[in-house]
């Protein structure tokens, strides 16, 4: 079978970037034997280099990685994957002693990964022109479905932790995330675990997540001060928060337990009775917590990461002495760092000698790379020369030289041999080779395929067996799916979520926000290129600071509710709805809220978010503003696209009247004078075009036609009012009246009709 080679290749590529001294020969033997077990794997120090962050791995360990693959009964028995005991301790790069040889090796590894990524991107771009791409995608989808159908997964005991004594040496911090269990197992239609039933039209999977939590410790104990083995033992012990002697963590969110039910229809291309993917996710409770020391620590780290990134180029010159008694050495470090990193490279960059040397290097590399890609088996000497030349060039010049070498080879009519590609014509791809080769076309057999792919080693009998197992046919499938067929359906239900803020973890909550019974559903109908997203929220409540009194309710949907059993918030967004009355539909409905001003809570919130005087937030603020600018630009571009493509929008917004209570002394009770602002009932709706008369050339004037070339919306605000009430006043009754002694501003109604031109190029039509 060919699958063994594919599995070995995938594992080697994935694990090779992250694991030290991976024994590929042992892995290959285990895979071919049907049971591969890797134990006590060490994670590389530079495993995080692709994330472009100034962090490194101080200690990393994978306890056990096991794959059980029944090669003899691959289509009927389960494939079992187990990952247990992943412990990762991350520290700032600045806290690891500089080692020139190790740093150079890690730099070259990172460069090679980036170059490989660029080559893969180029290859994918070339494959976009492949006429068999749609067929290939269908085959891959079927194969993935079959893999999931027979897959059992168990992931357990994951703990990733970051420690930092560089940001604030007087107050070290640590934060991390831990997972006790994540499993995927086969079930029957009643969602009870069972063995796979091959005759069933649908298959079912149970997903279980246990004890996922995150923490942020301030003034923390640092495991990174220990030797790596001892640090890993500390990591392992600290994740068991339910042990008899649990480690204390300041949680960001408390342990989460969730489950999901997945049903899949492997024949959704011909059987439309069930969605291809139907996923139901149930989340019991999420409790998010934040105290002021954590907030300050987060701000300090955000500012520090920027400084760490700036410092990386100067790291090799940094002295290993304290500043206080070694001022001369540190001044030497400053001078040398600026000269070597900033000044000298700029001076040398524009010298003729340097330019001449660089051009010669690029030409040499181009010639070497051309020789490499036009030789089926390049010599060791050639590969070594290519690698040595790459060390002196940056990624941009390497990519440019490679592109030039490929163009020269193509113009010369030379055959190009790429890593993982066999024979001549690139655009064909491995799947195209399978179709032409197995269909008996001898002329197509000389075309290239990707090595390690299924078609290269499969016999016709194996191919037939695979196609039968995954339900795939080489005969063209009708992709004109019914417009009402829901291909993907995802349900999400969260029973309760809370967010609380405290001055200190042992003090009362300044603010607690509670959300209950959040439901959402996402469906996709590929036959109409449509998606539908709906969300409902039943309860929203905010409580303030309990300062020698019960915690006041600042915002509540319960007290203001007018209709029982109706969701507090109901949102529907849909593209290409089935009734075809619009291109896009947005409906929003909300029930009223009671909002009460509380002076103690507001003042405490202001003090909570006030940054310390010694914290510089200029860079952080600028970065945030830049992100907001990018978001605004993207939003504006999206709105312009909708306008320019003449999308018909069915808009219906209905926000029931909420009101704000401001007590005279800042504390609300029945003895207080108060002001009440009723925000009014706000409605926005699009005007239907169904009632407009049909237009025909010659029967209407140009003015009639232009008057109908608008999308119109009704905007209505009713019963906006302002009241003042003394303790004996009945403001609840007065809110419902048109006039009363409590009114400062009697109810006001405002109605606006807004029209947007469909044609923006005609100067006679206002936009």
UniProtKB/TrEMBL annotation:
GO BP terms:
autophagy; protein retention in Golgi apparatus; protein targeting to vacuole
Coiled-coil parts of chain? 93-128
Q: Does the keyword Thylakoid apply?
A: no
Q: Which InterPro entries match?
A: VPS13, VPS13_N
> Domain of life, per the record?
Eukaryota
Q: What is this protein called?
A: Chorein N-terminal domain-containing protein
Keywords linked to the UniProt accession: Coiled coil, Transport
What's one Pfam family here?
A: VPS13_N
Which species?
Answer: Oncorhynchus mykiss (Rainbow trout)
Annotated Chorein N-terminal domain residues: 2-767
